[in-house]
Design goal:
- This protein has 430 residues and is mostly helical.
- The chain has a single domain, classed as MFS general substrate transporter like domains (Growth Hormone, Chain: A, Up-down Bundle), CATH 1.20.1250.20.
- The chain has 16 helices and no strands.
- Helix 9 runs parallel beside helix 13 and helix 10 runs antiparallel to helix 11.
- The longest helix is centred in the N-terminal third of the chain and has 33 residues.
- It starts with a helix and ends with a helix.
Length: 430
């Protein structure tokens, strides 16, 4: 046992020195899976919509299909991590995303487009939760910052898409969006190679299997702290993809050029790259709850600004505020979920709250597309999202009773972080 403890201490020290390598590999995977596989669609959608003769409702359904694929798998991924290991799932999931991206470059019908988007959702589910498990397992004391970098990969993907789409559509005309999906697929293959070389599964402290099975319900699924985070994360998920899916089109509708639209969306992408690490650091100082309240409040206001001021400066301010806060919301909810339970349950808790997030994403774009088609008003969809974030703000205020600023993982796992398996006495206490 002493030899095992010494080996784990040595591994932990070694990986502390490799923290930036892990951050780089994780961001590369996130750019491919979430950045290209999820966030880029809203920017490419106007050109796909025209070329494939889709309605806004059909375009919204494509974004919803990604969420369906994500929702189908995300709640099971945490359990699969405990059985197969996180790294294998990261590689498998990123491979599915790459295949889906290549498919999108070749689709000729709406049905095949739906299938490709479904693959993107499933692949993202297999990638993201296991990736956070690896980071939290190796670097538990720096989870806020690392999850922030991880989620920031979405912003980097948005930035890349915003910068490239005007050039690709200019260079290749109606085929530009197809070439761009192909480039994303090729870059995803590179991220798989990077992840394979750098990432390793962490030695997470484990409970006896019998105790794990008995405890999933009480320690995760019916845990009031986890449920509170899950409901808030679900509301954020509902509001999250609607601006990404339709704001680019709204910018074009108010009379700006596609190059101006790309610049405005790039502002959000640039700011969201730094949003996660920024709010992760802020939350370490003022507490996760206070930081989450700030991001939700600013985010709600940012979606009202383009409705009131549908001009260039108003849209710039809106995307600046949105980009500054949206990734912070996601990373704070994710960090909160892993802090409410023992490290053994962390991937399960993260998968559980992400199920609520994915359910919100499933409903959001479809509902947004229906509102736009029904009333011919994109601003109404933005107002809906602002109201949902305001509701999440109110729920966060009520988190006082659950001591959200206390790191439960530190309290429960601190005595056993040096061991691969908890002693029986510790298991009984949990």
């Amino acid at each position: 046992m002493n030899g095992g403890k010494g080996e784990i201490r040595m591994l932990a020290t070694e990986h502390e020195q490799n923290i930036w390598k892990y951050a780089f590999a994780s961001v590369a995977v996130t750019v491919s899976s979430l950045g290209f596989g999820r966030m880029s669609y809203g920017i490419i959608m106007p050109f796909m919509k025209e070329n494939l003769a889709m309605t806004y409702k059909q375009a919204g359904l494509l974004a919803t299909t990604v969420s369906i694929g994500y929702l189908m798998m995300v709640i099971f991924v945490g359990l699969l991590v405990t059985k197969y290991g996180a790294k294998k799932l990261v590689i498998f999931g990123t491979g599915l995303v790459a295949f889906g991206l290549f498919m999108l470059s070749l689709v000729a019908s709406y049905g095949w487009t739906l299938f490709a988007m479904l693959l993107l959702g499933i692949g993202t589910a297999f990638t993201y939760t296991p990736l956070i498990t690896i980071l939290v397992g190796w670097f538990p004391r720096k989870r806020g910052m690392l999850i922030g970098f991880l989620v920031g990969g979405m912003g980097l993907g948005t930035l890349i898409s915003s910068a490239l789409i005007p050039f690709f559509t200019t260079w290749f005309g109606d085929m530009g969006w197809r070439y761009l999906w192909f480039v994303y697929g090729a870059l995803s293959i590179i991220s798989i190679i990077i992840a394979t070389i750098i990432l390793r599964d962490p030695p997470i402290p484990l409970l006896p299997k019998e105790m794990q099975k008995r405890s999933f319900w009480t320690k995760v699924y019916f845990n009031k702290r986890v449920l509170r985070v899950a409901f808030i994360y679900g509301l954020v998920g509902f509001a999250y993809l609607v601006p990404q899916s339709f704001l680019f089109s709204y910018i074009l509708e108010v009379g700006l050029t596609k190059f101006q639209a790309g610049q405005i969306m790039a502002i959000s992408g640039i700011m969201s790259i730094f949003s996660g690490p920024l709010w992760g650091g802020v939350s370490d100082r003022i507490g996760r709850k206070s930081a989450l309240l700030a991001t939700l409040g600013i985010g709600a206001v940012s979606l009202i600004v383009p409705v009131i001021f549908p001009v260039y400066i108003g849209l710039v301010v809106s995307q600046f505020l949105w980009g500054t806060t949206i990734v912070g919301m996601l990373s704070l909810c994710q960090a909160l979920s892993t802090e409410q339970v023992h490290p053994t349950y962390a991937p399960v808790a993260l998968g559980y709250v992400t199920f609520f997030f994915a359910a919100g994403q499933l409903l959001g774009p479809g509902m947004g597309g229906w509102i736009i088609d029904r009333f011919q008003q994109i601003p109404l969809a933005l107002i809906m999202c602002s109201v949902l974030l305001a509701l999440a703000f109110l729920l966060t205020i009520r988190m006082n009773a659950h001591a959200v600023d206390v790191d439960v993982t530190a309290l429960e796992a601190k005595p056993v972080l040096k061991s691969l398996c908890l002693e029986e006495a510790s298991a009984e206490e949990l």
